[in-house]
Amino acid sequence: MSYSTKVIEHTENPRNVGTLDKNDPNVGTGLVGAPACGDVMRLQIKVGDGGLIEDARFKTFGCGSAIASSSLATEWLKGKTIDQAEAIRNVDIVTELDLPPVKIHCSVLAEDAIKSAIADFRAKQAARRDSVAAVAPASEGPVPHGAAREAQG
Amino acid sequence: MTLQLPIFMDYHSTTPVDPRVVEEMLPHFTKSFGNAASRNHAFGWAAEEAVEHARERVGQLLGAASAKEIVFTSGATESNNLAIKGVADFYRDKGDHVVTQVTEHKAVLDTCKRLEKEGLRVTYLDVGKDGRVDPADVAKAIGDKTILVSIMLANNEIGTVQPLREIGEITRARGVLLHSDAVQGVGKVPFDVQSMNVDLASVTAHKMYGPKGVGALYVRRSKPRVRLVAQMDGGGHERGMRSGTLNVPAIVGFGKACDIMRLEGREESARILALRERLRTRLVGELDEVHLNGSFEHRLPGNLNLSFAFVEGEGLMMAIKDVAVSSGSACTSSSLEPSYVLRALGVGDELAHSSIRFGLGRFNTPEEVDYVADLVATKVRKLRELSPLYEMHQEGIDLEKVQWVAH
Fold it and tell me: Do residues B304 and B10 make contact, with C-beta atoms less than 8 angstroms apart?
């Protein structure tokens, strides 16, 4: 099987390889795939105060197409809102990288990784709001639940 | 000498034709082009003489008692089909059971599966962690209705050499025929149909620096005389066992390739073994978590099958694209399943996905080996920097205990 020039380019010069602090409340981490299946992607997003994704990083165990799919995903994620990021579809990756049918699962995995990172980010934000809501009444006296939520943003 | 890229290190898949072989083949395309079955003119006689000379040479390499025991075919797949189906058909009255093992080539396994559909019983023996079948298991599997045992000489993926001599003693004592797919091992490790009691052996030219599209089946003619039912109907060539006009230039080339192997194989194997060990010791020395698949001791000299943990095989192949190798990763196959051979050894799927097969051969040089060792070490390190699994491993996370979401 021959690879498209874009896949080769991404695998030779992968963008945004690295690790963000997974304990940072503004970082969402998605870890998808399984070693036994031959591909594992870890994709992380860091969301700024304005709600924009200010950084995205990945590490991938997999074939060239899997590496290229996740590399491309991190490029696309930067500067997007969460809603825009959520709208990225695997077919967009297939088209951009010119993936053959047998490699479509790589793009599916990349979409899953994006969704998983977003879900993790949202869960952290929700947990943080809840903990603030739970802590707030004790420290600041009786405050309605909704108000704490508001205050947290 | 300057290094020529790309480098071929996939000699188990095929080999280039030796220039000495090509030279001997050439006249048979143009000048001496006769049909070896033409019995009434000089062109036919010349072709027949060339074929018989080649038959002698092939027979000599295998240790055949007579050149008449060599049946030319289109290659090893056909030879395996002819041996197993031919025996099963001929000896149907005597028995209906065949014994083989799980890491055989698909040409053997799928032939057996076809016969199972037709009512034959087949025992597929397991292999040990080193890839070898236990001769005691062969002895146990043979029953009253067993007509054939088929065990390869050496495996095409992991290079593991099977204990054929021990198995031959068992089959001979029990009066059961022994077939061996000897494609990968002939000329490279000791093989001799007489001392090993092999009754049928499949070989092919293109794995030993001959042309593609020609092979042979050794069929013993005495003690015991092996009978086959032909699998192709036609003009009754090759003593009725394989009809079809003989591919004279290819057969001539095959004969020459066998002759070179017989005369130079031993010396060549020592040289190739030294190259392989140079590659292995460098890679194992420079990288952590590199695993050898298959037996170290009982191994083809040119075979090095390594799993580079935390790096996926196809990804690595792409990173070293100037070097032609092969991988047991699912991604390199159309089935999306990792290598069944590595699975049979008990190699986990994750390490199977990380496997690379280096196949060294006649035309590899020490310079090439050093280049490949440097390149592979560099790229494995780079891909590990890219691998979430390597990071997790370094953090001390047991990857076996992670709840992965299979997809």
Answer: no
- Could you please report the per-residue DSSP string of B9-75? -BTTT--PPPHHHHHHHTHHHHTS---TT-TTSHHHHHHHHHHHHHHHHHHHHHT-S-GGGEEEESS
Q: CB contact, 8 Å: B99 with chain A? A: no
Q: Which of A17, A20, A31, A61 to substitute to test the interface with B, most B CBs within 10 Å?
A: A61
Active site residues of B: 331
Which DSSP category does B229 fall into? Answer: -
Q: List b or e across B352-386, with b for residues whose CB sees 16 or more CB atoms inside 10 angstroms.
A: bbbbbbbbbbbebeeebbebbbebbbebbebbbeb
Q: pLDDT tens across A105-149, in order? A: 999 999 999 999 999 999 999 998 888 777 655 444 444 443 333
Q: How far is A81 from chain B (nearest CA, A)?
A: 25
B350 and chain A: CB distance < 8 Å anywhere?
Answer: yes
ipTM over 0.90: no
B119 touches A at CB < 8 Å: no
How crowded is residue B23: how many other Cβ atoms within 10 Å of its Cβ?
11
Whether the model clears a pTM of 0.80, i.e. scores above it, the answer is yes
